[in-house]
């Protein structure tokens, strides 16, 4: 009985070593396969367009609907790329995409409300900060 348990344990250790991939290799592959750099850049640009529209009192309903709709789609698209091979990166990016999506939703109905415009701007700032942290974690986890 003890021999069998020992053999099973040894087989488990050997099998675990056979299929392991370094985190850096997995993260580099994930980032490449999902176009992470381009996605993060697109989100940042879209967020900047929303911020510009929210800060301009002359931005009307149609303009806010357009720019927030584009941001929401980009955030939802980025969300589908999760999870990453790294839990910390996944959590940071998930928070970023959620905040950017929330900013888009609040900003969508903010044309006549300075308070909603301010709330949306705050969510944008929060989302971009988390995106920056998530991007840094992706880069760090990609170091061999």
Please provide a written account of the structure.
- 81% of the residues lie in helices and 0% in strands.
- It has six helices and no strands.
- It has one domain: Four Helix Bundle (Hemerythrin (Met), subunit A) (Up-down Bundle), CATH 1.20.120.
- With 144 residues, it is mainly α.
- It has helices at residues 2-18, 23-33, 36-55, 61-79, 87-108, 114-141.
List the helices and strands and how they pair.
Blueprint: H1 2-18, H2 23-33, H3 36-55, H4 61-79, H5 87-108, H6 114-141
Helix pairs in contact: 3-4, 3-6, 4-5, 5-6
Largest sheet: none
How many DSSP helices? 6
Shape: elongated
Helix content: over 70%
Structural class: mainly alpha
Global Rg: 21 Å
Number of domains: 1
What is the H/E string?
A: HHHHHH
CATH fold group: Four Helix Bundle (Hemerythrin (Met), subunit A)
What is the end-to-end distance?
42 Å
Ranges where pLDDT stays below 50 over 5 or more residues in a row are 5-18
* Fraction in beta strands: under 5%
According to DSSP, the number of beta strands is: 0
Text of the CATH class: Mainly Alpha
Mean pLDDT: 90
| CATH architectural label | Up-down Bundle
């Amino acid at each position: 009985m003890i021999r069998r348990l020992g053999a099973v344990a040894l087989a488990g250790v050997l099998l675990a070593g056979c299929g392991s991939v370094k985190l850096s290799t997995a993260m580099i592959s994930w980032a490449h396969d999902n176009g992470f750099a381009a996605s993060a850049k697109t989100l940042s640009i879209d967020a900047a367009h929303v911020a510009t529209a929210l800060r301009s009192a002359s931005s009307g309903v149609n303009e806010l609907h357009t720019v927030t709709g584009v941001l929401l789609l980009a955030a939802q698209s980025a969300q589908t790329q999760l999870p990453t091979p790294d839990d910390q990166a996944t959590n940071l990016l998930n928070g970023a995409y959620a905040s950017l999506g929330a900013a888009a939703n609040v900003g969508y109905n903010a044309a006549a409300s300075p308070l909603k415009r301010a709330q949306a701007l705050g969510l944008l700032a929060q989302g971009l900060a988390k995106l920056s942290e998530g991007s840094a974690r992706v880069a760090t986890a990609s170091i061999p």
